[in-house]
Amino acid sequence: MGSKTPEQERQSNGDGPSGSSNAASAGGEPRGVHVSRDGDGSLGDGGDGGDDKDGDAALNRPNGAVDEEAMAQPPSTNTSKKKRRKKSKKKTSGPKQSSPPRIPMMELFPSGNYPVGEIQSYVPAVDNSARTTAEETRLKSRTQLEDPKFLDDYRKAAEIHRQVRRYTQETVRPGQTLTEIALGIEDGVRALLDNPGLEKGSCLISGMGFPTGLALNNCVAHYTPNPGQKEIVLQASDVMKVDFGIHINGWIVDSAFTMSFDPAYDNLLAAVKESTNTGIKTAGIDVRISDISAAIQEVMESYEVEINGKTFPVKPVRDITGHNIKRWQIHGGKSIPFVKNNDQTKMEEGEIFALETFGSTGRGFTREGPGVYGYGKDPFAPSKIAAPLATARSLYRTINDNFRSIVFARRYLERLGVERYLAGGVVESYPPLMDIEGSFSAQFEHTFLLRETGKEVISRGDDY
């Protein structure tokens, strides 16, 4: 998660519909501060100082003596009006995002500087030993975290995620179909990227990092509405996990949240959200993966939730990471288990992590459910296949031209005009993951970077 496909690592970062400038980062300003600057390049009312100096000069003689006649005269009305007009000019602001979000990022941020994620200081590790030669070697290959172009693109994807999910949280209500919700998210992402993704290869420049996940209740993860499936309508009693990622030049900002409309589930959501935040807080250079996992599990298991008069402990979903379809789609990205384990691997500077936690009122183990979430091609598969069917060869070309190893849904193929999905076994399908019937589950996730001076939780927003 939050990393790059092997094919895309070998590509040069060319300009495209989603390209951003090489300007320096935004320097930690909160979102929206840029709007107050875009009018005339000044902040506050500091521009009035020039008028005050002119007034002082009119009231003083060259030799320093005070001109009493000038002081006795009332101030000019015209001067006051001019001052008021100057102040009003400073209140002009730049464009604001529409609802639904459809204004491309480059129009909102013409300088190319996007908001910096939340910066967290590193907590000193118990065993903070010196870097080994191997670690230093690996670090040299991850210098992109300090590259302004990479950071601008990554922060742009994060800002798009924040704006699209904010609109989703404000507008999604029971009675909508999951197809309507998924298309609303994906149309917003493509509009803000200014890349519809319909031209050959444009999906590889920027777009959805994987199919939008809308998993309800005991479906823990990996459900998305597709053509041919029975339409599902969101109910007021549902708990819905919303998981989507945005990539630019193959680098994915992955973040997820949970929506519910019944306060009975509040403790379930709180348990998973706090577990995710605990994992991020614990993470850092030289911290062992096992220590982070143990901290996450301890927090989650401290919660319980009462539903219909019955109390349920909140359990971490133990085997979700083993089925993670994003694990091979991206080369070099890492996820963190959220149950106790013996992984003594230490985090290293320059790494990117996506930390997602799942909590359930059920067994805490998943099984494969009916249907197909998405499809993915092995990143090391050949560029051409010798399939006997022309439809299979044509589909394989479409996949290579538009997705390569990025996981995609059937509705993505239909957008490109593909009507037949027979692939002759050249792609792998991924099913939904389910806990026991009648249980409820929640998910929260953030992408963060281990930079030299601290963790940048790049997908952090004021919502979670």
UniProtKB/TrEMBL annotation:
Its cofactor is Fe(2+); Co(2+); Zn(2+); Mn(2+). Substrate binds at residues 222, 331. GO terms for biological process: proteolysis. GO terms for molecular function: initiator methionyl aminopeptidase activity; metal ion binding; metalloaminopeptidase activity. The keyword Signal does not apply. Pfam families: Peptidase_M24. Residues 1-108 are annotated as: Disordered. Residues 13-28 have a biased composition (Low complexity). Residues 1-12, 31-40 have a biased composition (Basic and acidic residues). Keywords: Aminopeptidase, Cytoplasm, Hydrolase, Metal-binding, Protease. Binds 2 divalent metal cations per subunit. Has a high-affinity and a low affinity metal-binding site. The true nature of the physiological cofactor is under debate. The enzyme is active with cobalt, zinc, manganese or divalent iron ions. Most likely, methionine aminopeptidases function as mononuclear Fe(2+)-metalloproteases under physiological conditions, and the catalytically relevant metal-binding site has been assigned to the histidine-containing high-affinity site. Its EC number is 3.4.11.18. It catalyses: Release of N-terminal amino acids, preferentially methionine, from peptides and arylamides. It is found in: Cytoplasm. This is Methionine aminopeptidase 2. InterPro entries: Creatinase/aminopeptidase-like, Met_Aminopeptidase_Type2, Pept_M24, Pept_M24_MAP, Pept_M24A_MAP2, Pept_M24A_MAP2_BS, WH-like_DNA-bd_sf, WH_DNA-bd_sf. A divalent metal cation 1 binds at residues 243, 254, 445. CDD domains: MetAP2 (cd01088). PANTHER family: METHIONINE AMINOPEPTIDASE 2 (PTHR45777), METHIONINE AMINOPEPTIDASE 2-2 (PTHR45777:SF1). One of its GO terms (cellular component) is cytoplasm. Belongs to the peptidase M24A family. Methionine aminopeptidase eukaryotic type 2 subfamily. Residues 154-449 form the Peptidase M24 domain. Residues 80-93 have a biased composition (Basic residues).
